Amino acid sequence: MPDEVSPGLALEGRAMVPGEAQGDVLCLDEPLSFWGGLDPETGRITDRHHPQLDESVVGRVLVMPSGRGSSSASSALCEAIRAGTGPAAIVMAEPDEIIALGAVVADELYGRLVPVVVLAEGLDRLCTGVRCTVSDQMVIAYSDNRS
Question: What is the CATH number of the domain that holds 36?
């Protein structure tokens, strides 16, 4: 991952779940299974084997290579979104219909929209701590908040 991100870096992808959100980026080194890998009550990563164990996804733009897990991952993500402990948006390198389904159901049932965007390239230009906005198919990074 790069040490710095240019202010106003704009990456275009495909919106699986269109919408707008903003937050600080949390980059995951490995895919996350929301079913059994995330505590929907706290929004913390609980998978003991995950490199970002105990990190909070709450209100952050979750950046990861792909999803991981069974079809139950959509219900676990939906529950975290309902409880207000889910991410603000999800950005992935590979499409994952299970994650998109969880976001769509949370919007339909609870009126809580979490955009899901797939970036064909540029995912590695986003790093933890960067503030960004997700707007439909665009991901715009503003600055590195670690300074």
Answer: 3.50.30.10
